[in-house]
């Protein structure tokens, strides 16, 4: 038992900012992993293995899990816009904005990359091997949201 305690003690990250950055990275990773995996499942199955509500519920469980994981460590901002708003309000030091944002972006990319690896075969089968943003077999919406063609730039900006 002493060996395990020694190993755990040695592995503990003592730098507070490093712990906070790892918390944001892990939290954002978990959030996007849940959400994007559900989106990939629904999209590539042509809604036979889930529906739009499944994606919404997966994202909500992802947010909850990410909050539980990282709130005590970093505040669970999970988004650069949230971190920016905390800086503006004075609840987060401006010096932490860039490290938090980079960790959140990196966590999102890691989660998206993992979802892409897991669903690669399904995505390729669904899209016919041609990855597109628009059209009936587009797969970009698994990883991002896009405005509709009929909505104006001004409305999209406000949205």
UniProtKB/TrEMBL annotation:
User: Which keywords, in A-to-Z order, does the entry hold?
Assistant: Membrane, Transmembrane, Transmembrane helix, Transport
GO cellular component entries: basolateral plasma membrane
- Which Gene Ontology MF annotations are present? glycerol channel activity; urea transmembrane transporter activity; water channel activity
Membrane disposition: Multi-pass membrane protein
PROSITE patterns according to UniProt = MIP
Localization in the cell? Membrane
Q: Which reaction does it catalyse?
A: glycerol(in) = glycerol(out); H2O(in) = H2O(out); urea(in) = urea(out)
**Positions of transmembrane segments:** 50-69, 76-95, 101-119
The main location is: membrane
Please state which protein family the record places this protein in. Answer: Belongs to the MIP/aquaporin (TC 1.A.8) family.
Protein name according to UniProt: Aqp10
Gene of origin? aqp10
């Amino acid at each position: 038992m002493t060996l395990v305690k020694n190993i755990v003690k040695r592995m503990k990250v003592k730098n507070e900012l490093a712990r906070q950055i790892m918390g944001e990275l892990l939290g954002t990773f978990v959030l996007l992993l849940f959400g994007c995996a559900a989106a990939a499942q629904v999209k590539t199955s042509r809604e036979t293995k889930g529906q739009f509500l499944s994606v919404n519920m997966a994202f909500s469980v992802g947010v909850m899990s990410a909050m539980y994981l990282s709130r005590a460590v970093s505040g669970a901002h999970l988004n650069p816009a949230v971190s920016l708003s905390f800086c503006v309000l004075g609840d987060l030091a401006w010096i932490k904005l860039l490290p938090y944002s980079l960790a959140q972006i990196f966590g999102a990319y890691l989660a998206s990359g993992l979802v892409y690896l897991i669903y690669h075969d399904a995505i390729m089968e669904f899209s016919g091997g041609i990855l597109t943003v628009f059209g009936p077999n587009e797969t970009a919406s698994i990883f991002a949201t896009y405005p509709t063609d009929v909505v104006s730039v001004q409305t999209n900006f406000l949205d």
